[in-house]
Design a protein that fits this description.
single chain, alpha/beta, nine-stranded mixed sheet, four-stranded mixed sheet, about 25% helix, about 25% strand, binds thymidine-5'-diphosphate, binds magnesium ion
Length: about 400
């Protein structure tokens, strides 16, 4: 047992070596108090690790790890071919996006394929979890649920019994009693992640950590966790409604920038194999104002549809309603059309929209936006089966 004196902010849990009047992180005054912490648990876990060995790189005979499939081809793809045993995967995302649903489906599929899984929830009751599991059909003899916020119970469980997959939902809701800070504080999140990922490496257990991020990017966001884990995935609602994207921000076993596309249904989350189908209407490119282009999400190109509606304004100044595109860039394209092509757009309202609710930040679609506007203005249809791509310069030229 080693004792250490630290100073802790009672509001956000940030630790300091010296006392100070104001917390640098949460900005509160007079919230920093003295604490004595004992640091015995750290040594216990570290001792589980086998000592390092010196290997010759050419003859070490280490093979690439066998990967475990998640039951979602989209998720396997973004992970680089499935889950690597012993790796720690952080899934971040706002509340209600579907993290618990996706993970319950993933572990249920893994459990049916013979993995022994323990799912720790610090947020929901067993009834809530059972209800969700029943809704998505996640029943398996190999799947165990633990509803508890004290993480030591999970640690002793995985030390005693053989498990190959562990879920902690969420890392903000659980705590280590040895640290005297509250669940969700910096020190708790950091220490729990360290302890769990070391345990996972030593016992070859794959760990999924759920991390909340709030809209304000608030205090115990999982940002700094990214250094401590092997894979960082972000679950986002790129489109308005049922579609979800998973982006890879970090992957020690694959490439970053990949995205997976999913759909939230009544019976849980489903893979979307051909995203182009989602983001095009059946009549795309077949009426005035509708243009098909290609967007790049991660490393993956897919077809998108841009729609524009241009009509004479009845106001003293024209309306500009832009959805899914950068406003300033679209205004620039309108100015180029007015100045270089002589379209009197300042007397017209312009509505421009990316179908499917996608948000695009891609200069190569400039020309598609311009053509959609011209197509609506002139009431002309673009030649069938055409994809329009190109970045515009201020002089109205298409960049090489
Ligand atoms: P949840 O997985 O609890 O989100 P998170 O863990 O990220 O906070 O799911 C949130 C939403 O998903 C909730 O509003 C209900 C909805 N949902 C479905 O639409 N279909 C389903 O099959 C399930 C289980 C949930
Ligand atoms: Mg949840």
């Amino acid at each position: 047992m080693k004792e250490k004196q630290i100073f802790v902010c009672t509001e956000c849990g940030t630790e300091y070596y010296k006392w100070q009047g104001k917390c640098d992180i949460c900005g509160n005054w007079n919230t920093i108090v003295e604490r004595i912490i004992t640091t015995s648990s750290k040594n216990k876990v570290s001792s589980l690790r086998s000592p390092g060995k010196l290997l010759k790189l050419v003859s070490s005979g280490i093979k690439p790890p066998e990967r475990i499939n998640t039951g979602f081809s989209e998720l396997d793809r973004v992970l680089g071919g499935g889950v690597v045993p012993g790796s720690t995967i952080l899934i971040g995302g706002p509340p209600g996006i579907g993290k618990s649903t996706l993970l319950m489906q993933v572990v249920s599929s893994m459990a049916s394929n013979g993995q022994r899984v323990i799912y720790l929830s610090g947020e929901e009751s067993p009834e809530q979890i059972m209800l969700r599991a029943a809704r998505i059909g996640a029943i398996s003899d190999n799947l165990f649920i633990l509803t508890e916020t004290d993480i030591t119970q999970l640690i002793s469980e995985i030390e005693q019994e053989e498990y190959s997959v562990v879920v902690i939902d969420s890392v903000q809701s659980v705590y280590l009693p040895e640290l005297e800070t509250a669940a969700g504080s910096y020190s708790q999140i950091k220490e729990i992640t360290r302890v769990i990922s070391e345990l996972a490496k030593s016992k070859n257990i794959s760990v999924f950590l759920v991390g909340h991020i709030t809209k304000e990017g608030a205090i115990a966001g999982p940002k700094f966790l990214e250094h401590m884990v092997d894979v960082v995935l972000y679950f986002e609602e790129e489109t308005d409604g049922e579609y979800r994207l998973i982006r890879v921000f970090k992957n020690r076993y694959g490439v970053v920038g990949e995205i997976g596309v999913f759909r939230m249904t009544d019976a849980g989350i489903k893979d979307v194999h051909n995203p182009s189908e989602v983001f095009l209407t059946p009549g795309a490119g077949k009426s005035p104002g509708s243009v098909v282009s290609v967007g790049l999400e991660g490393l993956r190109p897919f077809l998108i549809e841009i729609q524009a509606l241009v009509s004479p304004t009845t106001y003293s100044y024209p309306q500009r309603v832009i959805r899914g595109l950068e406003l300033k860039r679209t205004l620039l394209i309108l100015a180029i059309l007015e100045k270089r092509c002589g379209l009197p757009l300042s007397r017209y309202d312009c509505f421009v929209n990316v179908v499917g609710g996608l948000k695009l930040d891609e200069p190569a679609i400039d020309l598609a936006v311009a053509i959609a506007i011209v197509s609506s203005f002139r009431e002309l249809v673009v030649v069938d089966n055409t994809i329009i791509l190109g970045e515009l310069s201020l002089t109205g030229e298409i960049k090489s």
